[in-house]
Write a structure and sequence with these properties.
The protein is α/β, with parallel strands linked by helices. It is built from seven helices and ten strands. It starts with a strand and ends with a helix.
Length: 209
């Protein structure tokens, strides 16, 4: 059984313990604005490979990266398109994952090609954690093919034996995964419609900033 820390009782303790475990190459589970997430530091090869084993899937399906602020985009990507910039101004922090070009010097198995998904979650704990340890390689905290988890008992049932720390934040209010938009080119493409409807995505692109 992993250690479980109640985020609602001690934000600082949960943050301190999470930083410690991530910096040692460990895996943690935490609540986000959508569902519970499973995470490691983006530059820890062994930890990222553990994520794939915990999920029960091969590395052909990419992991996403959660960041704490827009400045951290540059750690992951050489740059983003104007369309991507528009969408992040409107929907970040929030349930939007943008697919962008990945920096060539990133060697960890986050994805099989030169693309990567990035998001700033609307969750102060995850944002602060990312600012302290850097970008986080993440995926939903569930076994591949099983429902996403929004409660701790669901996390424990599916992957509890394979992680180092679970941060208990109660039930995730969102419950719906993020919307994923391919923003590598000026003409965007919706890859997964999630918490943000596709009509809202396209409507915001017509706004001049």
């Amino acid at each position: 059984m992993p250690e479980i820390i109640d985020l609602r009782k001690s934000f600082e303790k949960a943050l301190e313990k999470s930083v410690s475990i991530l910096n040692k190459g460990g895996l943690i589970v935490f609540p986000t604005d959508t569902v519970y997430g499973l995470a490691a530091k983006f530059d820890e090869d062994d930890a990222i490979e553990r994520i794939y084993k915990v999920k029960g899937r091969d590395q052909t399906k990419a992991l996403a990266v959660l960041i704490g602020n827009a400045d951290q985009i540059n750690i992951i990507s050489p740059g983003i398109s104007e369309s991507a910039m528009k969408l992040t101004r409107v929907f970040w922090p929030g349930a939007l994952t943008i697919i962008v070009k990945k920096r060539e010097d990133i060697k960890t198995p986050l994805s099989m090609d030169n693309s990567i998904g990035i998001r700033i979650p609307d969750d102060p704990f995850v944002r602060q954690l990312s600012e302290l340890v850097g970008p986080l390689a993440t995926t939903s905290a569930n076994r591949s093919g099983y429902p996403s988890t929004t409660k701790i008992d669901e996390v424990l049932e599916q992957i509890g034996d394979w992680v180092d720390l679970i941060v208990d934040g109660g039930e995730c209010e969102g419950g719906i995964p993020s919307t994923v938009v391919d923003c590598r080119f000026e003409e965007i493409k919706i890859l997964r419609e999630g918490a943000i409807p596709k009509e809202e995505i396209f409507n915001k692109l017509t706004i001049d900033f």
